Amino acid sequence: MSGRRVPASGKSDGMSITIAIIADVHLPDVGGTAQEAALVWALDSLARQPPDLVVFAGDMTAAGTSGSARRFRDIVDRYGRGFRHLITPGNSDRRKPSDWPDVQRCLASAGSANGPGWAVVLLDTSTGQTTEAGRRDVVRSLGSESGGNVVLVTHVPPEQLPAADREWLGAVVKVHPIRLLIGAHHHRDAAGCLHATPVHLVRGLDPDKAVGGPPSVTVFEDGANGWERRDWVFPHGIPQRWSETDRRGFVDLLGFSCMQETLLGLEEARRRQIRVVELRADDAGTRSGAAVAEALAAWRQAGGAHLSIHMPNLRWDRTQHAVQGVEGWRRALDLALVSEASALTIHVPGASVREMRAGGAAREPFAAFLAESLRVVAEKGMTIGFENMHAAPGESLDENRSFGFTPAECLDWVQCMRERLPAAARVGVHLDIGHARNNGLLATDFPLGSWYALVGATVTGYHLHQVVNDGTAVRNHRAFHGLHGPLISLSSFLWAWEAGQLRRAPMCLEIRAPETGWPAYEHLAAQILTR
Fold it and tell me: Largest alpha-carbon pair distance within the chain?
């Protein structure tokens, strides 16, 4: 287990204690996810090197469902043997109020634990604040400790609690012998103080969300020199352990979507010898005829191997009861044929869930039109990928919302088209991980790890882009500045890729601003290739 050792201060005269913190697992309902793999790895590692205590510091489940809580309990019971543990819930564990009683039973735990000269006390902040009952429990537990080394663990860190809670907590650490306060929730490491008490936040174990480094178990050890912390890093969420062949193979499949800069993008791809490129059919640059043909020939001469055409949107016209956007679509198909593209990237039909379900008004017209128009490219061996979409801010999540926001909807449409196209046609999901992450409340029910587990075997290609919260909205098509968030950490993608859960298919960085996109490509490729 690799990691870093960082002084945490808070020296005491008590006996040595080692505490392992597992936080922000976000286990989904779906089995076989990167989150489950990380949790099993963590418990197995801790069973082989047992600490004095393991504390699960909140957000064990992704959406607070009974199924995910029971899965968590089963995994802990199966792998978490040989060490004591405590559990305090987090805000995500309460996301389904109807399931909360069952979740609470699965996460049931004592509120404190102690040993010779030490004690660990839990503070429940899963509602975003303390409760009177929770405060009384903490004070009661602290009151039973006449001395020694006390550690207080909570999910929501002190600075994010309401002012009254911060004031109460400040008074508590002044009166009681709390030598260390540990929090989570922010998915990143941080350190500070509450009065004289050291406060440490941990980035947690979720391979989708750990920021600033790979997901990890954080271990605090109090010895002769006081508290020290180190990370036990999930080794399957980083590429450095891959063989050189695997790392090079990944980068060979990593490319770039030219977005609205067709000719410039092709020139940059040629110059950088990037093998995978996507062009948008609705960009004026793609209609430059001879100029595009010349740029494509130069790119291919430099080693270009996989060209994808991002097709224009098709939408359902409810007034005319017809598919809209046909003229532009047919021009794009001509471009794909003339440029001898390897693949088409196609947004799922622009209609509502209600209109696209079996028997819905739009389903048969879309299926018939696409089957007829895609037959020629399928016969030429082009791959056909239908891209998942995402919820707009404030969009209703009932059946009147747009289609294609969930894995089941995308898989349903892929199956529909497979039945209509020739048997040899390569049809699957083009997985946009930014869309899956920036998906409103559905991102909680279907985190990235769930998408990988559910659609990974059918993937024909990927769009990779970071999602950024700029304070007013969550925005897509931003550059990655590292492998580990925010808001997307690529650890789960790398785990699923290495494990074979994701098909090894072309990946395009879909970044709107070229001035940030090309440096992001170089940086990401370098991080993959560097041992």
Answer: 84
DSSP string, 390-418: -PPTT---STTSBS--SHHHHHHHHHHHH
Domain boundary among 196, 214, 237: 237
Residues 158 and 279 in one domain: no
Residues 215 and 351 in one domain: no
CA 60 to chain centre: 15
Helix and strand numbers, DSSP H then E, in the chain = 17, 24
Partners of 309 in the β-ladder: 279, 344
The structural domain count of the chain equals 2
User: Do 230 and 283 have their domain in common?
Assistant: no
User: In a 3-state reduction of DSSP, which class is residue 101?
Assistant: helix
Q: CB under 8 Å to 341, separation ≥6 — which residues?
A: 307, 308, 309, 335, 377, 382
The three-state secondary structure class of 194 is strand
Q: Can you give the length of the chain in residues?
A: 531
Q: For the residues of 62-94, what is the DSSP string, one character each?
A: SS--HHHHHHHHHHHHHH--SS-EEEE--GGGG
| Token pair for 88 | 């305090």
- How many angstroms separate the first and last alpha carbons of the chain? 17
**Do both 185 and 259 map to the same domain?**
no
Q: Are residues 148 and 245 in the same domain?
A: no
Tens of pLDDT, residue by residue, the chain (531 residues): 444 444 454 444 446 789 999 999 999 999 999 999 999 999 999 999 999 999 999 999 999 999 999 999 999 999 988 899 999 999 999 999 999 999 999 999 999 999 888 999 999 999 999 999 999 999 999 887 656 789 999 999 999 999 999 999 999 999 988 999 999 999 999 999 999 999 999 999 999 999 999 999 999 998 777 789 999 999 998 999 999 999 999 999 999 999 888 999 999 999 999 999 999 988 777 777 889 999 999 999 999 999 999 999 999 999 999 999 999 999 999 999 999 999 999 999 999 999 999 999 999 999 999 999 999 999 999 999 999 999 988 888 899 999 999 999 999 999 999 999 999 999 999 999 999 999 999 999 999 999 999 999 999 999 999 999 988 888 999 999 999 989 999 999 999 999 999 999 999 999 998 889 999 999 999 999 998
Give the distance, in angstroms, between the CA of residue 243 and the centroid of all CA atoms in the same chain. 24
Unique residue bearing structure tokens 């290495």: 498
What distances in angstroms separate CA 324 from CA 230, 365, 369, 494, one per listed residue?
57, 11, 11, 38
Q: What is the pTM of this model?
A: 0.95
User: Are residues 289 and 194 part of one domain?
Assistant: no
Do 413 and 327 share a structural domain?
A: yes
- SS3 assignment, position 425: coil
DSSP string of 469-492, one letter each residue = E-SS-EEEEEPPSSSB-SS-BTHH
Q: Which domain holds residue 310?
A: 239-529
User: What is residue 216's three-state secondary structure?
Assistant: strand
